[in-house]
Design a protein that fits this description.
The protein has 338 residues and is of the alpha/beta class. It has two domains: 118 residues, Orthogonal Bundle (Arc Repressor Mutant, subunit A); 209 residues, Vaccinia Virus protein VP39 (Rossmann fold, 3-Layer(aba) Sandwich). Strands 4, 5, 6, 7, 8, 9, 10 and 11 form an eight-stranded mixed β-sheet that branches. Strand 4, helix 9 and strand 5 form a beta-alpha-beta unit. The longest helix has 31 residues. The N and C termini lie far apart (47 Å).
Length: 338
């Protein structure tokens, strides 16, 4: 971080207000424009300056661009942390700036309320479908209780909730996690999850748009990875689990909550299931090939379908067997075509 861009970024009152807003939560450019009462292009210019100074970050989620603070609680980067502390003191000691920040937060609260109302309207429009799916997957309470038991009493560390959907499981496990990353391919579902999880401190939550076949994270980023009623949508569950293994630390945990093997072919047609559940032997093989050591599965008999919970521990950070096989196939194809 350089001093000149930092001082330039701090030289405009609007950018000071933006920094104080981003200290509380991640916001879209359009939402910032609404709070600040300025045009989106003008707010975008302010954001560009803050990003160039290393004080803010940009992240694309579908057609939306979200902004967050680049200043960490551990004082990184030091000059940025010093600037953030200065603004916190200014809000405390400067009555005019304090009143302006308070009004901005009131506007921010209105945006949060609008998000919640939008989420509730979405649930209302899809109430029948959600109820049907919940009944097929088993009652929420017993499944969630069994999952908490299977994960044990210890902390979960950095948690990745793959296919977070409405964010229910991320919400359930947030108290046991140091940080929750909620990933989903659907921007609409992420917006619902964002409304549900907005009470979590922004430094402990990340919502990310992405695909489970190409997780946008580095190797060994997570202590715990969760697939809750997600894996049956995978055409290649082995490849999905291999990708999960890549981002799981040595001795980290994976939990797969899904349906036991069944014959409800209508789920393929009506609910886009690619797999009709999983047998214990099949799941154990998939987990071992991916580089995990499986635990004994948990069975939750239901009507009409049975829910299973499979947990496993990451053995090491070497490439899992599935990845090695894919690399070999790729090399074979290159050789055949050369």
């Amino acid at each position: 971080m350089k001093i000149d861009p930092l001082l330039r970024a701090l030289s405009e009152p609007t950018r000071l207000r933006i920094m104080r807003l981003l200290a509380h939560m991640e916001l879209a450019v359009g939402e910032l424009a609404q709070v600040l009462g300025q045009s989106q292009p003008r707010v975008s210019r302010h954001i560009r300056i803050l990003c160039e100074a290393g004080l803010a970050t940009r992240r694309k989620e579908g057609s939306w661009v979200f902004l967050g603070s680049a200043v960490k609680e551990n004082g990184e980067p030091p000059m940025g942390a010093a600037a953030a502390r200065l603004l916190a003191i200014a809000e405390r000691d400067d009555p005019t700036f304090s009143a302006r920040c308070a009004e901005d937060r009131r506007q921010l609260a209105a945006i949060r309320d609008a998000r919640e109302a939008s989420a509730q309207a979405y649930f209302a429009r899809h109430a029948e479908e959600w109820d049907t799916l919940r009944q097929l997957h088993g009652a929420d309470g017993p499944v969630e209780t069994a999952l908490l038991t299977a994960l044990g009493r210890g902390k979960l560390g950095a948690l990745l909730d793959v296919g977070t959907g409405t964010g229910r499981m991320a919400e359930l496990l947030a108290g046991k996690s140091s940080h929750v990353t909620a990933l989903d391919k659907s921007p609409d579902m992420l917006r619902i999850a964002r409304a549900r999880l907005q009470s979590l401190p922004p430094e402990r939550l990340s919502l990310v748009q992405g695909d489970f076949l190409g997780l946008p994270f580095a190797e060994g980023d997570f202590d715990t990875v969760l697939f809750h009623q997600v894996l049956h949508y995978a055409q290649e569950p082995g490849a999905v689990l291999a990708e999960a293994a890549r981002v799981t630390r040595k001795d980290g945990r994976i939990a797969v909550v899904d349906l036991a093997a069944h014959e409800r072919e209508d789920l393929r047609e009506r609910h886009a299931h690619a797999r009709l559940g999983f047998a214990d032997e099949q799941m154990a093989s998939l987990l071992k090939d991916a580089g995990f050591a499986p635990d004994a599965p948990v069975t939750l008999p239901g009507d009409p379908l049975t829910v299973k919970i499979w947990t496993a521990r990451r053995l090491d950070q070497s490439p899992p067997a599935a990845s090695l096989a894919q690399d070999t196939e790729s090399n074979d194809r290159k050789t055949a075509t050369s």
